[in-house]
Amino acid sequence: MGTAQPRFGYSYKFKKKGGRCYVTNLKVTVGVVLRLPQWNAKGFAKPELQRYFDCVLRTVTVHEKRHGQIAYETGQGIERAMMSDLDGG
User: Fold this and answer.
1) Alpha carbons 33 and 26: distance in angstroms, whole number
2) Beta strand spans in the chain (E)
3) Cα 83 to Cα 63, 69, 76, distances in angstroms
4) Statement: residue 89 has pLDDT above 60
5) Are 10 and 27 spatial neighbours (Cβ–Cβ below 8 Å)?
6) What is the distance, to the nearest Å, from the Cα of residue 31 to the centroid of all Cα atoms in its chain?
7) Nearest to 2 by CA among 65, 55, 54
8) Are 4 and 67 in contact (CB under 8 A)?
9) Closest to 9 in 3D by CA, of 66, 78, 73
10) What is the pLDDT of residue 88?
């Protein structure tokens, strides 16, 4: 009925110090595309069906936004893990 499609990316720069290269400015990016149901002819339906659809839409929206929040939190965890590996930790 609804979907949340996350996209992950990253960027970084190198810095040379003491004859060695280091990764700096590592940043993980997260984008989420939410697709939610629409009812184009809703105005022609009975009021009780309109209210039911609105309730379902609110529930689906909250659910899919939570998937987006999980993707964002995952991106933060990936960034921490990558920095830890780069720092030798």
Assistant:
1) 23
2) 3-17, 20-35
3) 31, 21, 11
4) no
5) yes
6) 5
7) 65
8) yes
9) 78
10) 61
Nearest to 35 by CA among 1, 9, 73: 1
- Look at the block and give the residue holding tokens 């998937």: 67
Tens digits of per-residue pLDDT, 14-61? 888 888 888 888 999 999 999 999 999 999 999 999 999 999 999 999
Question: Long-range contacts for 27-30 (Cβ within 8 Å, ≥24 apart)?
Answer: 27/79, 28/75, 28/76, 28/78, 28/79, 28/82, 29/75, 30/6, 30/71, 30/72, 30/74, 30/75
The pTM is what?
A: 0.81
| Residue type at 89 in one-letter notation | G
- Quote the pLDDT of residue 17: 85
